[in-house]
Amino acid sequence: MVKAIRMSRTGGPEVMEYVDVELAPPGPGEARVRHEAIGLNFIDVYFRSGLYPQPLPGGLGMEGAGVVEAVGAGVTEFEVGDRVAYASRPNGAYAQARNVPAAVLLALPQAIGFDTAAAMMLQGMTVQYLLNRTVPLKAGDTVLFHAAAGGVGLIACQWARALGVTLIGTVGSDAKAALAKANGAAHVINYNTENFVERVREITGGKGVRAVYDSIGKDTFIGSLDCLAPLGTMVSFGNASGPVPPFSLGELASRGALFITRPALFSYTSTRADLEATAASLFDVVASGAVKIDIRQRYNLADVGQAHIALESRATSGSSILLP
Q1: Which of 116, 83, 36, 169 is nearest to 319 (CA)?
Q2: In the beta sheet, which residues pair with residue 34?
Q3: How far, in Å, CA of 43 to CA of 52, rounded?
Q4: pTM of the model
Q5: What is the mean pLDDT of the chain?
Q6: Which residues form the Enoyl reductase (ER) domain (predicted)?
Q7: Residues of the domain holding 149
Q8: What is the pLDDT of residues 117-140, one digit of tens each?
Q9: CATH number of the domain to which 296 belongs
Q10: 111 and 173 part of one domain
Q11: Burial of 66 (0-12, 13-18, 19+ CB in 10 A)
């Protein structure tokens, strides 16, 4: 038996139950991973609330790091005792141990600890594809990144700095502004005291930015479009304030033939080659010290309800992990 979080219905944090579950031996193509740390991400809230559907009853969590305890038939790339990390569906990482498809596991370099790995796989690989593939950035580009003091945001601030990109970040407090600035944001806007559209136009001399990375959704969407230079790209990759409402494509034409995309990590890592290349890029930039993973919140797995409340109230900064 292992302890795990299970839910039989969608709703608030109270639907997550800390229970004993029977863990079967790993099946063909699977490996059993004993978690040392588990990632906590806003996408978990979407699944818990029902915004993103999943079969129920079921688990939560897409990211973890630990040690292989057993392997199923046909698994040759991993052995018992290997250090591994992953960020993938199906959900179920909120557990002391689980069976994971070996095809999504990644060998964890000795230079990277379990806590760091659990905090960075989903967020770090997201930043990797956003800055290098969705809009391939180059030195001298200027971009706007919302929620710059969150887990994804702080990684993006550092990675953009390493690429020579001018990143303008938005945050919700002066303390978060200082944090984003310390992590490499060239300019920081407190959206509770400043109009971010006006400030972006001021910072860019009226030109606008090449790309906007928006994980906020409903509350910032139109303003984000207004920050783009002609032929710029709107990257909508989250819905923290709610889904973006329907809009006319004429909104893009009237602002200078803008591009828009709604990317997802698992589309960018759908092949084993892409997954390994994305992870290798992340491991390299972290191991080099160019990007440091700032874990600011640690919660016991049994206290996951408190963790979700903190996430939804935007009381967190940096990365958060669960400890089994």
Answers
A1: 116
A2: 67, 97
A3: 8
A4: 0.91
A5: 96
A6: 11-322
A7: 139-262
A8: 999 999 999 999 999 999 999 999
A9: 3.90.180.10
A10: no
A11: buried
